[in-house]
Records
---
Amino acid sequence: MKYIVILGDGWADYPDENGQTPLSLAVKPNIDALAAKSVCGLCKTVPDGMKPGSDVANMSVMGYDPSVYYTGRSPLEAASMGITLTENDVTYRCNLVTLGGDGDYDDLTMQDYSAGEIDSPTAEKLIREINEKVKLPENCELYAGVSYRHCLVHRGGKTGAILTPPHDISGRPIKDYLPSGVFGKEILAFQKASMEVLKRSAVNAERVRAGKNPATSCWLWGEGTRPSFAPFEELYGIKGAVISAVDLVKGLGKVAGMDSIDVEGACGTLHTDFRGKAAAALDAIKTHDYVYIHMEAPDECGHQGDKAGKIKSIELIDGLVVKPVYEEMTRRGERFKLLITPDHPTPLSLRTHVGNPVPFIIYDSAKEVRGVPTYNEKTAQSTSVFVPSGVELCKMLLDK
């Protein structure tokens, strides 16, 4: 038996004024065809009392109870970057962001949490400039990651900072969301110092000339400490692999003892190599029992309030990932199961995550059932099938 998870990050949504969501508006014949012969329902992936981040939700869908294993977002990303942590270290996600407006730092607005979806080579140059020209807080190290996503490590630090994800405050003044709490003063000083360097950077000047958003400041959030996971193979008795463009999900796979497979051209946006991800999954499933394919694009579009982009991302996943994976696995003739689901909703109206239950389908090539005519939030709810946690959904997929 082979198991494949196809996860469209954040693609669930709230209905618009016409009762439609991106999932109901998208043309997705392959997913709909599978929904007609699959178990379909809703799953609550985010436990009560926990923030509905992609860290918690993906961990849950991957079969790990966040209430047991979660120690923060950034240490998972650090694991993907190959950063060695001790039990006394604290890590922070470091976004390169675009702050807009005039006046002092406190008077500015969160214009763009991703600095125009800055590419990794350009971002690496800027992180290098910051490392060379900014005096980092004592006992801190700054590491370059993917696109706008980077990592600050505080060796021998303490948790307790009060930090806000930048995608939660898009378009808002930052004055009410500045770092505070434990180490907050030092973080704020670092952010302000990063802006002084970035506004004089020739790299940013070139971005402005090209009509792109400059990276004008670092913004820290996602505090955490070193995680400790039971190996996936030990928990579930099968060998797993993860395919993702983002360090968070790659890191989840690594701390779970899975193989993390890189795909050239995978970037976490609408421009990612969807075909390459499908091909990599089909190759990986030959030597693994379980493959987790993560696509970030719907979530990015949700954060940007880009309805057309979110619909397009669903259609691209349908045609370039679901179709070839289903057709090739069917051709091979070995029994397989597919789980198609988001991790959490990212409603366009809010431009951030919520913890509402998400629609899923589980297809079993050896046990087709009567499902629903099309896959979306409403049809999933109509089945009255409800799975109380992502861990239970994982077990349902794996027949545990």
---
Amino acid sequence: MKERVSFENDYNTGCHPRILEALSATNDERTTGYGLDPYCDEARGLIRDMCGAPHADVHFLVGGTQVNLVIAAGALKPWQGVISAETGHINVHESGAIEATGHKVLAIPSKDGLLSADAIDQFCRLYADDPTAEHVVQPGMIYISQTTELGTVYCLDDLQAIRQAADRWGLTLFVDGARLASALAIRKTAIDLPALARLADVFSIGGTKCGALFGEAVVIAKESLKQDFRSLMKQRGGLLAKGRLLGLQFRELFRDHLYEEIGRHENEMAAVLASRFREHGFEFYAPTVSNQLFVLMSESEEAMFREKAVFERINIQPDGRRTCRFVTSYATKMAEIDTLFAL
């Protein structure tokens, strides 16, 4: 088969050239391990400054699933579980990683992947009113993704309402930012890093899906979560010996607004791609606001596009149409989009 362009995901290339150059330029240096090197310190400082949170703890881990299970293990008591949208990554795409920590994912309905404060309130109220609540897994944390698994985004009002729900029920609020670069580039959400640092107890800043070779940053605002977090990372296999490789990448991402630049490019390419699909009469499974598009196609249309591109089929609708996901990244080029729609 001839070589096809790829819209399979946003982590199928190496890394942004600036990061590769930085890794290469420092390759022969010798530094202390486990994230105690100058590059990690500099990256932490840059992230704290960007978040307007000088007292936040910042840690670096290798991948998103690792982040999610470590945070769940640290934030939850043994009898507690984590509330998630039924589409949430921890519920559908992590092979029971949360459950393997001894905690249950409490999946509840959402709209377009977005969890609402009302749905959280309803779930917690049912638990609180249950006369046999001690026999039921207790909600202890709220998990939301920004962007969501369907490419949608929370706006500031949404996040504020969820924060209030978390406070009403005594829950930790965790925001999974695996694709945060794309979300931050959507100005209409009015959610920036300072807002996240103010409203979330803990959140992650994605690197793997946002131009890095690998890696995620964890930002902790809640004091009770800070204690012994490095010990927890070590126990769960998350304390990387060559930690400077993570710090160096996040230093580059947060110098000279590279992270913002990557998010804007991802979204701009996705907007062009969505426009092309609309011009050809295609509809979408979810709103098209970030760098993930979910296009509804017939079986023959899917086959036609597969001759030109690599992408994922998510599901098959009751009417037989396929939900096909197309994802843009820092490396997506206009020529690739042109190839997709060339006659």
---
Amino acid sequence: MLGEYRDSGFKEAPYLARRADGQVLQLPRLLYLVAENTDGRRSYEQIAEAVTEKFGRGVSEDNVRVLADSKLRPLGVLAARDGSSLKLERPNPLLALNFKTAVVPRGLVNALTTLFHPFFWPVLVILAVAGFVALDWWLFFVHGIAQGLRHLIDEPVFFLVVFGLVVLSAALHECGHATGCRYGGARPGVMGVGIYLVWPAFYTDVTDAYRLGKGGRLRTDLGGVYFNALFMLAALGLYLLTHFEVLIAVILLLQFEMLHQFLPFLRLDGYYVIADITGVPDIFVRMKPVLLSLLPWRKPDAQVTVLKNWVRVVVTIWVVLTVGFVLYAYGMLLLHLPSIVGTAWASMLALVRNTSTALGSGQAAIGLFSVLQIILLTLPVLGLGWMLGRLMQRLLVLNWVRTRGRPFNRVTGYLVMAAATLLLVAAWTPPRTHYQPIAPGARGTINESFDEAPSVFSQILSIAPPLRNLVSPSASPTTSASPTAASPAASASETPGATASPSPTPSSSP
């Protein structure tokens, strides 16, 4: 029982409870009090008396029985009448971490947070932030980054050093989240690894931070990048002692990683910062209600009207920007998939050749680094395939569930999906791209990505004459659009009275 969600963005603050599987639930105060006073020993009458005293209004024995059987047991908060636990499928929220597995147990995590606890003393935080600002001024306006990059390119073996230090920094990033959680008075859980979108990532279970106020939650969110800053200061100190220029490249890479962490459209640190500033822990869950509430002819959804006015404005802005970002990212990914595949294949062949050459000439370190690169290239390619397959599965299941009892709507939905799939196949079919790698001169700008769209549509129309005639009725049936050979640029059940919130597990991509 995590208690009232403090500093929330709701007009009436919800209460939070965490199930045994780690899922956090939002409960109204009455449901929370019933769950809090249910211990397996008290009778319904005794629970009703305790709830009445705390709730300030009369709650009968029958009321408690109905709430327990119809609300709390289906949610998995209470065991079944025979004492058994219900087997509940944990939801897989949008853009969540997948294939995760615990690596560092809770006990060891708490031991590490005891070691790092002093780094959150206010005086040290102020000194560290001041030092980080001075580091950035020195790096970009005094010393520069050119020599660090030159040394790294001239001696590829140093990529192994850079990779190791970046992974170490990512591990310390998670220690920062856990320590920030512990410093505020909550207890962090396990640390582990998983796949976020298509990249390997570390994560830390800091669900217990929900019991903290806004300041404690924000400390937990920012603890990761704070420890990244400490790591960079340590790297600077080591550079001043050794003048090892590769350390400058490490600091530069970590600067980009910090900026990446603040992206608010993915489940990274920036998203959790916005969630805790607004006091809404499940913004992704509210995306559909917020969008539907923007339609003038629809009554605003209850999941929107429960928010405070200023919070509702901020969440609406975030939803609109996030939907645009996700649609653009997925659209460009599908549009340029042939070039991505071609680039990955060319890179894989080059890495295999480099590995063979390096090992054949006795350069074990360079050969080992090439093997590591092959592994790192294979993981996102497999992850990309899994992500697209998972997206298709979600759409198929969603259409099946939402159209139950409406066969016409169900068939229509599947026909639309089939048509969209055929259009994608047409867009991916040669001779449009021949799966050529991304050209050296391609910049990958937003303008470039949209400039590619006309050639894709031309390719689709040239392969699908009936569709072309529908789009351009005046065109002759024998006329075909000329495909372009230019390579595209790269681009990157609702339960009344209680809702589930995703556990806040900030992740950092290596």
